[in-house]
Design brief:
The chain is mainly beta. The chain is 12% helix and 36% strand. The protein starts with a helix and ends with a strand.
């Protein structure tokens, strides 16, 4: 009996196993891989997790197409003018009543030319133009529309004439009925009014008045003469000269000085020009006059006993791409006995002109004098101009 029960259990187990195997085979044969169309249909039909399924009676909202926005054009400088070509620069017309605004980062300066007086006069007997010169005066209102306080003065301005010469404002102008000198710290939202005066030759006319509140940045405001563009196109206005060095290269000069390949040697004679290139900067100097034994009408500017003033009148031209500041320490004189001399700092009372000093913009010119005090018997060996002591480019005017 026990043996019969064991055989019966084994047979039932085998039958159960066969049934399970048949069930698995039946399901596997009916499950085929879905086609790509079925997958796409299932994806479309199934809502995303967490998204609401729209009801049949609720219309689905449609997002309207967004309008295309035009990009805001950045202010551009007038490309036809040889000055003020930075995209941050602003050009306006040099006329009375003109208002222009300059943006420099977060700082905004708004200037108005209230009055222009060509031939302005001062009631101060010591404030008079030299013979052959005149005063050109600007009465200006400056508004600070920025975020910080700024000290604005005449030193922020510069004037260029049609002939290409750059002029610095008259220092501390007094006695003018049009007002006092512009020199004021202006807080955000505040204004200041003052005058800026230039001394020009009577035969020279302004080409532009430049306002530069921050020499470190490139933003500048130019008030251009009404016919500035016409003057430039006709060639009447001075244009930047070709950027190229002039003179004998230093490494071919056969001199014991100025032997760098960037140095240039030219003769020390009246009418001679020479130029040196220092990267993108090109400096051109022309000797206009040489006076051995120059005299000053100022009783306090006189040579020591046994000495004399040796004076050279030069014209400087900036043929480079950025402004340069001329200072006396850029010059040196060596005499034939081997001694070197620095220029005189107090240069006044000389009929040949004023000290060559000031800022000259790209394409601009400046004329002035450089004066040395040397022994009576001394004679020059060379005059050196070195605009940048860090670099090797130097210009030598060698005595013949």
């Amino acid at each position: 009996m026990r043996r019969f029960m064991k055989v019966l259990l084994i047979g039932a187990g085998g039958l159960l196993a066969v049934c399970i195997l048949l069930a698995v085979l039946t399901q596997g044969g009916g499950s085929e891989k879905p086609t790509p169309t079925q997958v796409a249909g299932a994806t479309t039909a199934a809502p995303a997790v967490g998204s609401a399924t729209p009801q049949p009676h609720e219309p689905t909202a449609t997002t309207p197409p967004q309008a295309t926005q035009e990009p805001t054009a950045a202010p551009q400088a007038t490309p036809t003018l040889p000055w003020g070509t930075s995209k941050e620069d602003v050009h306006a017309t040099l006329v009375e009543g003109q208002t222009a605004e300059l943006t420099d980062g977060k700082e905004v300066y708004r200037l108005t030319l209230e009055k222009i007086v060509d031939g302005a006069a001062s009631t101060n007997q010591f404030q008079q133009p030299k013979e052959g010169n005149r005063y050109l005066l600007f009465s200006i209102v400056v508004e600070n529309a920025g975020t910080r306080s700024h000290l604005i003065s005449a030193t922020n301005f510069q004037l260029r004439t049609v002939a290409g010469f750059d002029y610095e404002p008259v220092f501390a102008p007094v006695g003018f009925t049009e007002g006092e000198a512009l020199s004021q710290e202006i807080s955000p939202g505040g204004k200041a009014r003052g005058i800026v005066v230039f001394e020009l030759p009577t035969d020279q006319q302004p080409l532009f008045l430049k306002f530069d509140p921050n020499p470190i940045t490139s933003a500048e405001l130019y008030f251009d003469a009404p016919n500035a563009l016409e003057l430039v196109q006709s060639g009447a206005a001075s244009q930047p000269a070709a950027a190229a060095p002039e003179g004998t290269p230093g490494d071919q000069a056969g001199k014991s000085w100025g032997t760098s390949k960037n140095d240039r040697h030219v003769p020390l004679v009246v009418g001679q020009s020479g130029a040196i290139a220092d990267g993108k900067q090109v400096y051109r100097v022309t000797v206009m006059a040489i006076v051995d034994g120059a005299t000053s009408s100022n009783m306090f500017v006189q040579p020591k006993e046994g000495h004399k003033f040796w004076l050279v009148q030069v014209q400087f031209e900036n043929a480079g791409t950025s402004s340069i500041t001329l200072i006396p320490t850029q010059w040196a004189l060596r005499t034939q006995d081997g001694f070197d001399y620095e220029p005189e700092i107090m240069v006044t009372g000389f009929t040949e002109g004023e000290l060559l000093s000031g800022e000259v913009g790209p394409g601009g010119k400046m004329q002035g004098i450089v004066v040395f005090q040397i022994p009576q018997s001394a004679q020059p060996l060379f005059l050196k101009f070195d605009p940048n002591p860090i670099t090797s480019a130097e210009l030598y005017f060698d005595a013949q």
